[in-house]
Protein 1
Amino acid sequence: MTQADATRALAPAVILVRPQLAVNIGTTARAMANFGLSDLRLVAPREGWPPVEPHKGAAEAAASGAIGLLGTARVFDTTQAAIADLHRVYATTARERGQGKPIMTPSAAMSDDVSALAPDAKVGILFGPERTGLDNDDVVLADAVITFPVDQAYGSLNLAQAVLLVAYEWFKAARGDHAPFGPVEHSKPAVKNDVMSLFDFLEEELTKAGYFRPEEKMPIMRRNLRNILQRSVLSEQDVRTLRGVIVRLIEGPRLPGRRRELRRNLENRSPAGD
């Protein structure tokens, strides 16, 4: 079993209680698939399951490649039946229900789920109907409440957004919070000899152009320029590119005599000739 398969097997069940729209079940499936969740349970969906057309097509289009989850979704008549085989259940809600249950953010709940529960414990997360959220009778079945730290000026989340936030936090807790890929190194870091040669070339051309004025400030201006370029951590390709840029800027019109002069300067100051 691969790590992805093992993670998927331990992933919490997503339980949509009385979902109103089949299209929202589709977007939920897509959110689940993004983060390795596969156990989708539906409690008394309003449009039935599987739905008839056009609701079926809308759900499949919204799933966007996660149609397999729609096909394996299980349907239950009651919330109690949907959670019967689970060891721990969370209820998502936007408001305090006065039931004395632990109230957790998605991050805290999913970290606790991964680190504190037995490896074979089965977990489920309840999500309520789109318009009203979970009833108190649904919340009472849960061990803890998950609520979302959103801006109170606009705290409305749609169903798939809520599922996505919890699924993302679970995935981070289970698989690690690291980027799936890193930068590709296309060119090795430039050696200091090449960088110093570039500095010398740039400063020589700037001197010809009268940049270093007043003359007494030239040492400070040179250091400032070198520090700017040093902070960039130049690669071999960077050095070649900057040399080409400087040449084009100072070459101006393509005058044969000027081009020959510049080529001689570059050959005399190129890293290979140092």
Protein 2
Amino acid sequence: MKSWTKTVTTSSVLVLSLATAACSNTSHQQPEPLSQKEKVTALLKSIETGDAEPVSYINPNKYIQHNLGVADGLAGFGAALQALPEGSARVDTVRVFQDGDFVFAHTDYNFFGPKIGFDIFRFEQGLIVEHWDNLQQTPDSANPSGRTMTDGPTQAEELDSTDANKALVQGFVNDVLVNGKMDTITQYIEPNYYLQHNPGIADGLDGLGAALAAMAEQGITMEYQQVHRVLGEGNFVLTVSEGTLGGQHTSFYDLFRVENGKIVEHWDTIEAIPPQSEWKNGNGKF
């Protein structure tokens, strides 16, 4: 009996020891590394929370800044955050996509006032080394079709069609927006199903035409002159373009959703580019 008791007791201790060791090993396992999308989302959210950890996702020796109101490098990023009124920042990243070493995000901000923004980050060896953005003041109400600047689908689909969708969107921007070939527009846009998130334009090609006509009546011209970048993931494609709006040097960021080989939805931000004398870095907007 004593021998049996001793055996049971010894076995119980061994099982308990193994279980304890297993739990200990589990608790000390390294967490899965964050994806580039997760790093971008966390960095943007840290503007609101003040969390210091996401700053480590930026290369401290190389951070090229293209927001012309922010100085270059980590010092410039920190100075911009310190200038924010305490407790004023709010960051809600609605959608985020990746194209190779580039991650682009669409965010609802309160950053020196309510704004909608697109941010692009470039990575090298897992760290952020470059940043571009385009910010527009958030309108007080929805557009004529009841849509906001950020609502709608958020997840990329058709991941194997990224290259084809990028080519389609680039063709549209170059042919229609840059070169004014309006007769080709239905080659790119689905005329019976085109959802619009620009705050001043209604759904459909009729809504786009009416908005352009209204601008023309007011003597306001909008010119796309050059496409600088086309980024995409699946059925979402972002273009970065330079031009003028009402004679003002302007940056246009346009996000398109593609379905069955046609553009079916559009979001954008439009930002005036200040004169070079007001720039806080020399990297340029694009």
Protein 3
Amino acid sequence: MNTCLAPCPLVFDLDGTLLDSAPDIHATVNAVLRTQDVPPLSLDRVRSFVGGGVDILWRKIILATALPPEAQGDLVASFMARYHHATALTRLYPNVLESLGVLADRGHPLGICTNKPLGPARAVLEHFGLISLFGVVIGGDSLPQKKPDPAPLHASLAALGSDPAHPRGIYVGDSEFDAECAANAGLPFLIFSRGYRNTAISDLYHSAEFDNFAHLPGLVEQHAELARA
């Protein structure tokens, strides 16, 4: 067997990586803003706020709308009440399901490490019938730390069987938070270029970039040995 196909663990971000979920996040944000008589934000504006988790999302919305900072707790609660099952507008990126199937068939343990809260993360994976592919799902509220702290990524890899003292694997994501997390963890990072980043890929830590999930199994094969080093 080609050693490049050795089944190293693969951990994925969710929003902007496997899923184009910004339309549902956008609709949920504007539903909350309507309750405050605040004009809606554009999809592009909300998309640019995604990646750091719900608290950072609403911190940025408050700055963009001049809502009072002390209202953040209530706004987040109102958002979360609507967000747990916000899946109607979310879509898998093309070739995600096929690519995950190839990687699983090759024996790679698969996991999720996202700043999306665990409840909505699991709900959307279940909605698309993906939950059984992943041996672990770490959400933004699973640990005290969030990305770009490497702790959630290390926890994901440990749950997939990597040595907790020296966790190895490949991380796949789309954003500045993901790139910095992979760098902090000392792992190869494959960046999906059609996601939600606000920074040029050339300015971000990454091992390779791709714009089509059909290319991912080949990239994993190329980087698997580096991931095991």
